[in-house]
Structure formats: structure tokens, C-alpha cells
Amino acid sequence: MHLSLPAHIQRLIEERVRSGKYETAEDVVAAAVEHLDQQEEAGDFEPGEWDGLIEEGRRSGAPLDAEAVFQELRQLRNRYHGKAP
Q: Best label site of 18, 22, 29, 84, fewest CB within 10 Å?
């Protein structure tokens, strides 16, 4: 596949390669297309659906403390495997 890109897009791609973050122009384009695909997939919500999901999360209760949850999981794992805490 061969593409003709506007000069400003070519410069953006070249800058990304020069930065060292990407090895080739193809890597930059592939990352951009993957990002676009993720954005489009995330956008597959019906009007108002996203807001409804956010509200459902708010109504579900107080947020959990991640470190406390991980500690509890470690304790359960240790009990299951017969290890001391």
C-alpha cells in the first residue's frame, strides 16, 4: 500500500521517528490506526448510554481503596496456600 500524505502529516511522522519512540514511519502509522480503532470502538455507545453508565457507577457506592483490596487478596492467597501473613 502506498499513501500520499500532506506535508504537515509527514513532518509529524518524521518527528515521532526522530524522537526514538518509533523505529519507522510504518510503526507511527500503525500506532495511529490502532489508536483510531480504539477510539471508534469506545464510541460505540448509544446517545446517553455513557452518561447512564457513569451515573450507575456513582450509585453503586463508595469507591474501594485499591491497596486495601490488594492486601485482602494477598491474605486470602496466603491462607489458601498455607503461608503465614
A: 84
Apex 60 CA angle, 55 and 61, nearest 5: 115
User: In whole numbers, what is the pLDDT of the chain averaged over residues?
Assistant: 89
Burial of 66 from C-beta contacts in 10 A (0-12 / 13-18 / 19+): exposed
- What is the model's pTM? 0.50
- Comparing 47 with 11, the larger pLDDT belongs to 11
What cell was used for 41? 470502538
Of 7, 33, 8, 37, the residue nearest 22 (C-alpha): 33
Q: Measure the CA–CA gap between 46 and 52, rounded to whole angstroms.
A: 10
d(CA 66, CA 64): 6
Q: In this structure, what C-alpha cell is assigned to residue 78?
A: 496466603
Grid cell of 76 as nine digits: 486470602
